[in-house]
Specification:
alpha/beta, Rossmann fold, globular, binds nicotinamide-adenine-dinucleotide, binds 2'deoxy-thymidine-5'-diphospho-alpha-D-glucose
Length: 362
């Protein structure tokens, strides 16, 4: 858990959307730990990716409230902003998985575009009604995927890299980013926008690469590596993403965008090998050992982006944020977490999940 970060002058009142998902729940824990005097209201629809168990240790705490609901429900959002006197929205709620966006893009446009629009409109009305307080903030948590795909020698994505999203997921996130930018430009809404690279760590849903590999190793199932396994992602431990978002809320300049990343580019196949080695070292009685025997190259993801890399100079020089967890430390912590939290991930491998798995992996 992070140390207390930036001492706030007055307690904040936050609405955290998507707070029962992977990054959202890590952020809720971070915030409640660092700023116990602040009010935290989580709004989450509890889709397949939302899990109330991620927040179970906060249930019943005086300053914490969980509301199950949809960010597209304007009446609900209005009433939460008013009755809770919210001054800060931290917006994580999204459909987040590229493979699902290829199978069924509708929900991505609905939640990522219309949902973000609904929140912006509601927050604008609320901010105007309060006569534009200087400390109000709307943090939109976005992704590096909006910048498209890099060639091997291209410079890393900076805040001025043109948008070129390639999947329905990244296109819907790009649409939401443009709305956020426009609401600052047109109405001076105090927005903050972050574009982060691939996260990993506790509470990561089993469909994503790192948890999928950890779980399949533990179950002795094949490890599906797309294409030639040479695609590159830039990995950041989720706790470091949370400290970056905290820093942006406290010190970021309204209207600005900040890229967030850990400067950790790794090829997929190298990452899978690292996970196999860690599991072989840390787990007893694996069904198949060494785990590398499970690696299985499968059909590539349609439109698969080749390489992502983030240039995080701006957040470092302007706001003083740097990541604190190396990939070696972060992967070890993550593997141990999946090894010791079977009761968390096992129920998520439901029949709905098996249906999805069949659709993607055949
Ligand atoms: P996730 O899929 O784990 O969680 C999303 C959460 O949003 C879930 O709790 C879900 O129930 C909730 N949700 C979905 N639709 C909703 C709706 N209509 N109304 C209310 N709640 C809804 O996602 P994540 O990986 O934690 O990502 C969180 C945010 O961070 C997303 O906006 C994503 O684009 C962004 N992001 C993710 C990564 C990453 O590596 N995971 C990296 C950069 C940015
Ligand atoms: O870059 C930030 C993005 O990172 C976020 O915006 C997304 O929400 C998040 O899901 C993630 O997107 P990716 O598509 O990069 O993550 P994923 O874990 O799905 O895949 C990581 C890489 O591993 C990618 O190159 C595809 C590959 N892969 C993935 C799966 C699930 C495989 O080779 N096999 C697999 O089974």
């Amino acid at each position: 858990m992070a140390d207390l970060q930036n001492a706030p002058s007055i307690p904040r009142r936050l609405l955290i959307t998507g707070g029962a998902g992977f990054i959202g729940s890590n952020f809720v824990h971070h915030w409640c730990h660092c700023y116990p005097a602040d009010r935290v209201v989580v709004l989450d629809a509890l889709t397949y990716a939302g899990n109330r168990a991620n927040l179970k240790d906060l249930e019943g705490k005086t300053n914490f409230r969980f509301v199950q609901g949809n960010i597209c429900d304007r009446t609900l959002v209005n009433s939460l902003l008013n009755e809770e006197e919210i001054d800060t929205i931290a917006h994580f709620a999204a459909e987040s998985h590229v493979d699902r966006s290829i199978l069924a893009p509708d929900a991505f446009v609905q939640t990522n575009v219309i949902g973000t629009f609904t929140l912006l409109e509601a927050f604008k009305q609320h901010w105007f009604a309060y006569e534009k307080p200087a400390h109000h903030r709307f943090l939109h948590v976005s992704t590096d995927e909006v910048y498209g795909s890099l060639q091997p020698d291209d410079p890393a994505f900076s805040e001025t890299t043109p948008y070129a999203p390639n999947s329905p997921y990244s296109a819907s996130k790009a649409g939401s980013d443009h709305l956020v930018r426009a609401y600052h430009h047109t109405y001076q809404l105090p927005t903050l926008l972050t574009n982060c690279s691939n996260n990993y760590g506790p509470y990561h849903f089993p469909e994503k690469l790192i948890p999928l590999m950890c779980i399949n190793i533990l179950l002795g199932k094949p490890l599906p590596v797309y294409g030639d396994g040479q695609n590159i992602r830039d990995w950041l431990y989720v706790g470091d993403h949370c400290t970056a978002l905290d820093t942006v809320i406290q010190k970021g300049k309204p209207g600005e965008t900040y890229n967030v990343g850990g400067n950790n580019e790794v090829k997929n196949i190298d990452l899978v090998n690292l996970l196999c080695n860690l599991m072989d070292e840390l787990a007893n009685d694996l069904p198949v050992s060494p785990s590398q025997k499970l690696i299985n190259f499968v059909k590539d993801r349609p439109g698969h982006d080749r390489r992502y890399a983030i240039n995080a100079n701006k957040i470092r020089t302007d706001l003083g944020w740097v990541p604190s967890v190396t990939v070696a430390e972060g992967l070890r912590k993550t593997v141990i977490w999946y090894l010791t939290h079977r009761e968390w991930w096992h129920p998520l491998l439901s029949s709905d999940y098996q249906t999805y798995y069949q659709q993607v992996y055949g």
